[in-house]
Design a protein that fits this description.
This protein has 17 helices and five strands. With 418 residues, the protein is α/β, with parallel strands linked by helices. Helix 8 packs parallel to helix 9, helix 11 packs antiparallel against helix 15 and helix 15 packs antiparallel against helix 16.
Length: 418
């Protein structure tokens, strides 16, 4: 895709969002999670420490210029933009670089001050460039800071912290205390962040709707418990594609629509009531909000784009996670008659070898048929590269041992049977 096509696509997405009453707020990482830019060789020198690809060195003016140029390009692509999210979460290894160690050697300076110094510099530059812009940032690097430290940082009045917690057992009291702390420091405009996909494990294939619904019900308890002084601006229902730029794909969108619908209805109804569940089932034409239990259907996809792919993904995932297939190496016959000892010496009972080969071949055929059906549907909704990555990530590690066993047994049997 060329630049002109890319620009037109971004603008058309914004037009569509606007037609639905949605305001687009881009998130541009400006400190941590900058793997997408610091992975490039010409920018390696801007890392805090060489092995940590994601953290920007806060001492280099070139780093601030880089961040501001990224922001400028994003703002330019979003006409009428009123708010920016500058990230700033999980700034790993901060303070470990040589320049940071020199900076921290001065009395009274801490890693907290170092973090606040960079974020304040970026926020002030944004305010000077775009005076009308609301600036949102993740809060996690500030959670351990005292109110006096926050008040003295220069961030008060510049940024609105967004608290993230994606767990189903979110601690309501602790979260309320955190919101009240920020408010007491002068940051009364605050946001929450939940998730409808991702945040379970880095390689999860199919989300648990109930897990994400539980997270939202906990956030509703937080919202009901904070004081009137806390001005909750809203909640960002995050949907992760990866844990970071260099990690594997987690849940794709087609299997997560029921979770998103359930989370939205939970917030709308104040709980995941029977009415909320009914609304989800009706809006997507499904019998269960858990994608693994919604069953096969011949219904069209007008209410649930990607439904056929979701069904196929669930079926394939079930196959991949079946113990008979995933742990085929632990099969009694494999361990008993085709162990590493047997394989090394090419010792094998041909009859049992043929039995093992037949079973492995049956599993491989079932997997290959399902994979091809998934691929065919997936490339209708995603780039070919996404389909290829997903298959290599989820399917190849399971099929490879089966393929190896069939090949090795075939070779052994051919040597032992005339």
């Amino acid at each position: 895709m060329g630049w002109v096509e890319f620009r037109e696509e971004v603008l058309s997405m914004q037009d569509f969002a606007k037609s639905k009453g949605l305001e687009v707020i881009p998130l541009v990482q400006t400190f941590g999670h900058m793997e997408f830019v610091l992975k490039h060789r010409p920018l390696w020198s801007l890392r805090e420490v060489a092995p940590c690809v994601g953290t920007l060195n806060p001492h280099r003016e070139d780093g601030v210029r880089l961040v501001m140029e990224m922001l400028r390009q994003v703002v330019e692509l979003h006409p009428g933009l009123n708010a920016l999210h500058i990230g700033a979460d999980e700034v790993y290894m901060l303070g470990e670089g040589e320049e940071s160690k020199l900076w921290l050697a001065s009395p009274g300076r801490t890693v907290e001050h170092l973090f606040l110094s960079h974020v304040t510099k970026v926020a002030q530059a944004i305010r000077e460039t775009w005076p009308h812009m609301t600036i949102i940032m993740w809060d996690d690097m500030m959670r351990g800071m005292g109110q006096d430290t926050l008040k003295a940082s220069g961030l008060v009045g510049l940024v609105q912290p967004m608290l993230w917690d994606y767990t189903p057992n979110l601690d309501v009291d602790t979260t309320v205390s955190l919101l009240e702390k920020y408010c007491g420091a002068g940051m009364s405009d605050l946001w929450a962040a939940s998730s409808f996909k991702g945040s379970t494990s880095v390689y999860t294939c199919v989300p648990s709707t109930q897990r994400h619904v539980d997270n939202h019900e906990q956030w509703l308890k937080v919202a009901a418990a904070v004081s009137a002084a806390v001005n909750l601006q809203g909640i960002a229902i995050t949907g992760w594609q990866r844990y970071d730029h260099l990690s594997v794909l987690c849940e794709l969108m087609h299997v997560a629509l029921p979770s998103l619908a359930a989370c939205l209805q939970t917030l709308s109804h104040g709980q995941f009531s029977a009415e909320a569940q009914s609304k989800v089932a009706e809006s997507l034409d499904i019998s269960s909000v858990e994608v693994e239990a919604m069953g096969r259907t011949t219904a069209d996809e007008s209410l649930f784009p990607g439904r056929r792919l979701a069904e196929l993904t669930v079926e394939l995932n079930s196959l991949l996670n079946s113990e008979d297939i995933r742990f085929f190496d632990n099969n009694m016959f494999v361990r008993g008659w085709f162990s590493p000892y047997h394989q090394q010496r090419k010792m094998l009972s041909p009859l049992i070898g043929m039995q093992i080969h037949s079973q492995a071949s049956t599993y491989l055929t079932a997997l290959q048929e399902k994979v091809e059906a998934v691929r065919e549907e997936m490339v209708r909704l995603y780039p070919e590269s996404t389909a290829q990555e997903w298959i290599e990530e989820h399917v190849s590690p399971v099929m490879a041992p089966l393929q190896r066993i069939t090949e090795d047994i075939g070779a052994c049997v051919n040597e032992m049977v005339p």
